[in-house]
Design a protein that fits this description.
357 residues; Phosphorylase Kinase, domain 1; alpha+beta; 8 helices
Length: 357
């Protein structure tokens, strides 16, 4: 894995921007992620001053392989390749390829929130995207080795028409190599390798808990197994809860490891779970009748979540101003120009033809 530049200590959501390409989408039924993939192609991120080109759509559609892209229902995941580095002096800390998660939010404009000058950031980012961003920021700050590193993010105003606005959030993270685990391919691994996966999973989840991040989604397919490194990586962090200075990580996750967590992710059977842990029943269980693996209870690893408080920073809730920033895609290059704000009198004079354009 690369060692990209970490996020600054003053994490903020970018002011939303609109693009000329975005404005062409008005009154269109095309999903924003589909538009970005098929028409826009290039995405620029503000903090790293980098531009990325979409290479492929790698969204996990296992529940319905024929499902059309819908970034309002789930994050759409793209593999992207670096296009340009803007005014940066070098590529230090910037990988050649990365993963970009895109999620859309439909904001209904009412008489209570129609003020166009200011808006609350929480109203323009989908809950799932926000939870993922906060978790990734915490894990990156604490140099978590079992999660992708947060590179950059932004929110854009993608489309607007009377009564509604569409906002799109972009989260850029490092790419993780390995095989994606599913229940089927996990149980097809050799017994020795399954035990390696379980040991790596215990270390990885303990590291996430040590950063005071609690995952509410327990899907085996959110894990990537890298046999060469002997590591498990988590790739999805929403829904999740990240605890900070005002809220402490719940005691159940603080003091000791619970074997039931193997079961939650479908990595073992109840025969290898401490009976006292079975009082907390997961919503789904592994259906294997037996497993000839090592006795999980015999594994002795430190559980770092009972250690020191992790580094943390709160993602601020302040009111931000809308900034108009027009991005034009021409011959594969991003050209930026600022849209000049005109006074009301100036616009009237222009309409009446009293001044030159």
């Amino acid at each position: 894995m690369s060692s990209p530049t970490r996020m600054s200590s003053s994490t903020r959501i970018s002011s939303p921007t609109t693009s000329s390409n975005d404005r062409r989408l008005s009154n269109s039924s095309m999903d924003p992620a589909e538009f970005i993939q098929n028409i826009q192609h290039f995405i620029t991120f503000p903090r790293t001053d980098t531009t990325w080109k979409i290479e492929s759509n790698i969204t996990d559609t296992h529940e319905n392989p024929e499902l059309k892209i819908n970034s309002f229902l789930q994050p759409v995941v793209f593999k992207v390749v670096i296009g340009s580095i803007g005014s940066r002096k070098s590529m230090e800390g910037i990988p050649r390829t990365a993963i970009m998660k895109v999620q859309s939010l439909l904001h209904i404009v009412t008489k209570h929130n129609k003020d166009k000058k200011h808006f609350d950031r929480k109203t323009i980012m989908a809950t799932e995207a926000r939870e993922e961003l906060i978790a990734l920021n915490r894990l990156t700050m604490n140099e978590c080795s079992c999660a992708p590193t947060l590179l950059d993010y932004k929110v854009t105003l993608h489309d607007e028409c009377p009564g509604r606005e569409v906002y799109v959030s972009f989260i850029l993270v490092t790419e993780i190599t390995g095989i994606r685990l599913t229940t089927r391919n996990f149980w097809m691994l050799p017994q020795v390798e399954r035990d390696m996966v379980r040991q790596a999973f215990r270390k990885a989840l303990s590291e996430i808990h040590a950063a005071w991040v609690k995952l509410d989604r327990t899907e085996c397919r959110d894990l990537i197994w890298n046999l060469q490194e002997g590591k498990i990586y988590f790739t999805r962090f929403a829904p999740s809860q990240t605890y900070g200075i005002t809220e402490h990580l719940p005691s159940y996750y603080c003091h000791q490891w619970h074997d039931i967590w193997f079961w939650w992710f479908d990595l073992t059977t109840k025969n290898f779970i401490n009976p006292s842990d079975l009082e907390v029943d997961p919503s789904h269980v592994a259906t294997r009748k037996h497993d000839d693996g090592s006795d999980i209870a015999a594994w002795d690893f430190p559980y770092p979540a009972n250690g020191i408080r992790p580094k943390w920073e709160e993602v601020k809730e302040e009111i931000i101003e809308r900034v108009v920033d027009k991005a034009v895609v021409e011959d594969g290059e991003i050209v930026k120009e600022k849209k000049k704000r005109r006074s009301w009198k100036g616009r009237v004079r222009e309409v009446l033809g009293l001044e030159e354009h």
